Amino acid sequence: MALRSIDILTQTSQGLYCPLGDFHIDPIRPVKQALITHGHSDHARSGHRAVLATRETLRIMGVRYGEDFAGATQEAPLGKDIRIKDVTVRFTPAGHVLGSAQIAIEAGGTRIVVSGDYKRAEDPTCLPYEVVPCDVFITEATFGLPVFRHPDTRGEVRKLLDSVNLFPERAHIVGAYALGKAQRVMALLREEGYDKPLYLHGAMERLTELYKSEGVPLGETPKVVAAERSKLAGAIVICPPSSIQDLWSRRFPDPVTCFASGWMRVRARARQKGVELPLVISDHSDWDDLCRTIRETGAGEVWVTHGQEDALVHWCTMQGIRARPLHMLGYGDEGEAEDPGHPSAAAGGGDA
Amino acid sequence: MNRFAALLDRLAYEPRRNAKLRLLVDYFRHTPDPDRGYALAALTNSLMFKEAKPGLIRGLVEERTDPVLFRMSYHYVGDLAETTALIWPHPVSGEDKTPGPGHNNPPPHVPTISEVVETLATTGKSELPARVAGWLDALDETGRWALLKLITRELRVGVSARLAKTAVAQLGGVEPDEVELIWHGLEPPYEALFAWVEGRAPKPETSNPAPFRPPMLSHPLEEEDFPKLDAADFLGEWKWDGIRLQAVSGRSGDGRLVRRIYSRTGEDVSGAFPDLVEALDFEGAIDGELLIVREGRVQSFNVLQQRLNRKAVTPKLMAEFPAHLRVYDILTEGDEDLRHLPFSERRRRLELLVARLDDPRIDLSPLVEFSSWEILAAARSDPASVGAGPDADAIEGCMIKRADSPYLPGRPKGYWYKWKRDPYLVDAVMMYGQRGHGKRSSYYSDYTFGVWRDGPDGEELVPVGKAYHGFTDEELLKLDRYVRNHTVNRFGPVREVEYGKDRGLVLEVAFEGLQRSTRHKSGVAMRFPRINRIRWDKPAAEADRIETLEKILERGEKEIHPLKGPMIEQDTGGEAP
């Protein structure tokens, strides 16, 4: 007889927990054994006794927290089964950021896939998502409302380049999350033929170097020198979202405030942040891709971790797929999962 | 339509006036007739078709989407047009984005703005939904959003009619006022106008003998202005709590006197005031305030509002709410443009004109004599004591105007100031928070507040109004957090917060006036309520009682009521759920 899904995976105050393998996935507090889906700080935290993750994710954690971020680390090869006590786990690309992976857990003929954050859209900076058929699919729902349909990224990047042409005397300041989005925007600009230097805020530097050393070509990416900001008319500058409204960005010549995020699909979000040129570029699945992915996994049951859980659960129910929200706290504190216009996001609370 | 959509999209995010102007000029330069003309008409609200109602859009989108998902999305986005634009399902491929039109599905035709406008002008009500649905199928997200804004006539992209006309003027290096002067003789799609500014044709002959001229506006007077201003340079007037109007009369080619009344923004509102139009027995343009005067006494704004709220202008309405124009400036007389003259000289000309007219419906706004700012301050705080007499309740402060000021369009600095009466203040307790719309969607930004009254079980709070501005963005974050952290009940987008004698948040609410209301539990409705201060320090038990409001109400009720009967409600605040 197949095991019940909750015997394989359950919830504790630290996050998702597999009792048969005695490990957590993306725990929000230090634990004995952690499996990490990707390097965003709300999923990858320091202080665990042992961490199992992809080579790239381990490198990212090393850059962010220092090489001693965990007691012991183990590299998870993609697509290979790994035995942990009574279960088998396997890491498969999730297409979210460099090194991101879904984690499949199998025991007694039942397979559960913890997808972490994922996207189906093309991304030159990481491996594409692979569908893993399963019984239970655990998904995020950051953009889990049918108003979120991400457009073709090329059109968005062209919007930016058109604006650079229309306002050559102004600097274009592009807010982008430091891990993943920033490098993707740079790679997309290069694909569109933009070959001038892309100026970086200091907070972007080390992760961008890491991407380059992993073989992602990003061209020339000098760090912005404070004294030279006023000379960067016509330049594209990439900085963390928190810096676009900072005094830091005001020193550039008549800056055009841009922000690359799936949230930019909703006008009020862009205006709340004072964004003048919203670029709808997301590292998460949009509504259509969430629905498509759930179907393609063939899962009979779906658990929704964070985001707009209610809408996605409703959709599953209407499709005859059993679904429940996990109401997990602690996710969405870094990167795009955080709704920038939403005050409770900063406070860590949810809005039911 | 795509080009117009891209323009609206950029404008909606662009805060700088000059950058907006550049985007507009760029659009007019690169867009052919008649598309650019219809775009100009849309931006100046000059389109002739009847606007589509939100109900039509809601009907269309609800047919095509899951009602639960639509409702969740609408609450999240906070704008019907935008929600519809984003959620509208792809007509062919549904969830799957890639497969475009197949052999049997030719690509849907993307309409031009001209096609949309021309079709709307000729399409009957019953065909409209199918037309709109077809366009929505053909357009992308931004196109759908722009189309819905266009057909509901709610562009709201921060472009005034004046700015759009300025952009047209800049195309050919003519003065914006020149465009303004011929504007009312022109019609969409304005081919003659573009031909003229581009130097391809002579200036269009204005066929409008009674054109609108942009009014001169004032700046609010700040404390720090006084030391810089010499009282001897200024003339004082009352600031009337009415509606600013421009009344214009002129002879048409056949010698007929054409009379028009314009709102402050240049909208022709003659149709709403036939009783006043009749009185415009002069040639020229005068500037003044629309008031309701009964038995020689100016009535409060509440009364004026009752006339404005009625759609049909019947003889009964005109008898009950007689329109009156209290004038304070003159722009032209006969063929003579007086705007370059000093205010004192124009005033003299105006006095002569009003005396000649000798019509009870048009009178002169009197000057307020003062020799120092202190004397004016005293007059402002008690108009009745310095000759305002029974009209004092309709006065909302003073205007001061430089005696030598020319009449300049727009809001020039240093000439005219308004010095408004201080608002009423009341300390009330927050009772409900509601999610805002537009820029504030998802924030709890609309607050219902109450004051104490005696209830069956001792003192209780009764809601007296709702306010959604007056606070800074930073304060909004705090108020939003307060609502989230003190929620005791949820009703859809509304949250009830904790309140009582020993708990609750006190809000100091400022408002301009009060009126009786049968729709509100408390029996009162506030005019322009806003949060003046957040009293984090004040215990809820010390908030004001309903009697404070009753007293203000009694003051304003010295109005003369011609007929007994239900008063028309003015939507000043929402009912608590």
Describe the structure.
Chain A has 352 residues and is an alpha/beta fold. Chain A is built from 10 helices and 18 strands. In chain A, the strands form 3 sheets. Chain A has a 7-stranded mixed sheet, with helices on one face. A 6-stranded mixed sheet of chain A has the order 1-2-3-4-5-6. A 5-stranded parallel sheet of chain A has the order 13-14-12-15-16, covered by helices on one side. With 577 residues, chain B is of the alpha+beta class. Chain B has 19 helices and 21 strands. In chain B, the strands form 4 sheets. In chain B, strands 3, 4, 5, 6, 7, 8 and 9 form a 7-stranded mixed sheet that branches. In chain B, strands 13, 14, 15, 16, 17, 18 and 21 form a 7-stranded antiparallel sheet that branches. In chain B, a hairpin with a 5-residue loop joins strand 3 and strand 4. Mean pLDDT of chain B is 86; it is low at 93-103 and 558-577.
Provide a quick synopsis of the model.
Chain A has 352 residues and is an alpha/beta fold. Helices cover 24% and strands 24% of the residues of chain A. The C terminus of chain B is likely disordered.
Overall 3D form of chain A: globular
Outline the biggest β-sheet of chain A: 7 strands, mixed
**Count of individual beta strands of chain A:** 18
What proportion of the residues of chain A form beta strands (DSSP E)?
A: 15-25%
Structural class estimated from helices and strands of chain B: alpha+beta
In DSSP terms (H or I, runs of 4 or more residues), the helix count of chain B works out at: 19
SSE layout and pairing:
The complex is a heterodimer of chains A (352) and B (577).
Chain A: H1 5-8, E1 10-12, E2 15-18, E3 23-25, E4 33-35, E5 48-53, H2 55-65, E6 70-75, E7 81-84, E8 87-93, E9 101-107, E10 110-114, E11 136-141, H3 153-166, E12 172-175, H4 181-191, E13 198-200, H5 205-213, E14 236-239, H6 247-250, E15 256-260, H7 267-272, E16 277-279, H8 287-297, E17 301-307, H9 309-318, E18 322-325, H10 343-347
Parallel strand pairs in A: 3-4, 4-5, 5-6, 10-11, 11-17, 12-14, 12-15, 13-14, 15-16, 17-18
Antiparallel strand pairs in A: 1-2, 2-3, 7-8, 8-9, 9-10
Chain B: H1 2-13, H2 17-30, H3 35-43, H4 54-64, H5 67-77, H6 80-87, H7 113-122, H8 128-138, H9 141-152, H10 161-172, H11 176-183, H12 191-197, E1 219-220, E2 234-240, E3 243-251, E4 257-263, H13 274-277, E5 284-294, E6 297-298, H14 301-309, H15 315-320, E7 323-333, E8 336-337, H16 343-357, E9 362-364, E10 367-368, H17 373-381, E11 395-402, E12 416-420, E13 424-435, E14 444-455, E15 458-467, H18 473-485, E16 487-491, E17 494-497, E18 506-511, E19 513-516, E20 524-527, E21 530-535, H19 546-556
